[in-house]
Amino acid sequence: MQRAVQAFSVHGNTVKNAVLHRIRVLNPVTRPVMFSRSVSSASMEEHGFESTTISDVLKAKGKAADGSWLWCTTDDTVYDAVKSMTQHNVGALVVVKPGEQKSIAGIITERDYLRKIIIHGRSSKSTKVGDIMTEENKLITVTPETKVLQAMQLMTDNRIRHIPVINDKEMIGMVSIGDVVRAVVSEHRAELDRLNAFIQGGY
């Protein structure tokens, strides 16, 4: 998955620039005939995947954007947290303090379970989530305004697969590397379609 993300980061602009270069080298005599109206490549780029934000990703996720993301409390056992991950087929849970669902205390992931429970031979049924979670002050987070490509870079640079979305110090959702890659793929495909229409005179 990380190789796919890195490939998009490295080669995404290469594809687009090649197409834009194709536009620039077209015979200037025929160019006015091809386009029904004048649209610069710069204005087209404003609508490309560089402008997609985390807010767009949350909207695409539907219910996951309205605060219904999965969570557990610091007092829950690691066993219960891992059981919840398994039941819902997710790799991480937001951790909150008891009675404070909007106030994030940290995050617990499958990686935390493997590295801090299994490897050390600890009991998941007697260990609290608060004892092994990644605490809030160490979390890497994004805001709704963060660009998707920036979020993807943060996740690959820090080798993380889930990132909380914070707005005004409150958690409003969480996105995974899969969410981000899907958004990039979708926007990349849409932008190529727009560039193709641009070349063919669809604009």
Question: What is the CATH architecture descriptor of the domain at 54-183?
Answer: Roll
Spatial order of strands in the largest sheet: 1-2-3-4
Can you tell me the residue ranges where pLDDT is under 50 for at least 5 consecutive residues? Answer: 18-47, 64-68
Measured as a percent range, the helix fraction is 40-55%
Radius of gyration (Å) = 22 Å
CATH topology of the domain at 54-183: CBS-domain
How many H/I helices?
Answer: 9
- Cα-to-Cα separation, first versus last residue: 35 Å
**Total E-strand runs:** 6
Beta fraction: 15-25%
Calculate the mean pLDDT score and round it. Answer: 75
Question: How does this structure look, described?
Answer:
Keywords: CBS domain. InterPro entries: CBS_dom, CBS_dom_sf, CBSX3_CBS_dom, Diverse_CBS-Domain. It holds the Pfam family CBS. Residues 65-124, 133-191 form the CBS domain. The protein is α+β, with helices and mostly antiparallel strands and 203 residues long. The protein has a domain at 54-183: CBS-domain, CATH 3.10.580. The protein has helices at 2-24, 31-34, 41-45, 54-61, 78-88, 110-118, 129-132, 148-157, 177-200; strands at 71-73, 92-97, 100-109, 134-135, 162-167, 170-176. A hairpin with a 2-residue loop joins β5 (162-167) and β6. The protein is elongated. The model is unreliable at 18-47 and 64-68 (pLDDT under 50).
